Amino acid sequence: MQHFTQEHANMPVVDARGERLGRVAGVEDGEARLEPASGVESRMEAAAAADEDALAIEPEQVVEVTDDHVRVELGDEE
């Protein structure tokens, strides 16, 4: 499980296939907020539970964090 800090702000966010989803817009209370790239909102909304904020990056979604990006699993990749 990844704990986010302000060091992650502005870092690119990619999916399991390496496709860019957007960037980390900021971190609040350890939760990263995604500023989505164009067309990503619907994928994030589909992957989020109905009672969750679709643009929040949950720690459980994070596959890896490198010096270059945050890789997440949205559950819609095959």
Can you put this structure into words, describing what you see?
The structure is a single chain. With 78 residues, the protein is mainly beta. It is 9% helix and 35% strand. The protein has 1 helix and 6 strands; from the N terminus they run βββαβββ. β5 and β6 form a beta hairpin. The longest helix has 7 residues. About 8% of the residues have low confidence.
Q: Quick summary of this structure?
A:
With 78 residues, the protein is mainly β.
Output the helix-strand order. Answer: EEEHEEE
Low-pLDDT parts are: 49-54
What's the overall average pLDDT, rounded?
78
Q: What is the count of helical runs?
A: 1
Strand order of the largest sheet: 4-3-2-1-6-5
Percentage of β-strand residues: 25-35%
Shape label: globular
- N→C terminal distance: 22 Å
Computed Rg: 11 Å
For the sheet with most strands, the description reads: 6 strands, mixed
Total E-strand runs: 6
Q: Fraction of residues in helices?
A: under 10%
Counting helices, strands and paired strands, the structural category is: mainly beta
Topology diagram in text:
Layout: E1 12-14, E2 20-28, E3 31-36, H1 41-47, E4 56-57, E5 62-65, E6 70-72
Name some characteristics of this structure.
78 residues, mainly beta, 6-stranded mixed beta sheet, 1 helix, 6 strands, 9% helix, 35% strand, globular
